[in-house]
Design brief:
- There is one protein chain.
- With about 55 residues, the chain is an all-alpha fold.
- The chain is elongated and about 40 Å long.
- It has helices at about 1-5, 35-50.
- About 5% of the residues are buried.
- Keywords: Transferase.
Length: about 55
């Protein structure tokens, strides 16, 4: 969804990140681990460049 949002022209995203989603007090199932988040940022940055956005 985040990649599609950037491709569609979104100016911002809200992404839940947690070191241990299984033990998070809330939103654990939708949280990304930090390493997955870093990977997502790289992909989003590439998409943003293509659609003329800066990060």
């Amino acid at each position: 969804m985040a990649k599609a949002a950037i491709a569609a022209g979104a100016d911002g995203l809200m992404v839940e990140v947690h070191n241990n989603p299984e033990k998070a007090l809330c939103d654990g199932p939708q949280s990304l681990r930090p390493e997955k988040y870093e990977n997502l940022l790289k992909q989003i940055s590439q998409i943003a460049t293509v659609v003329g956005k800066k990060m």
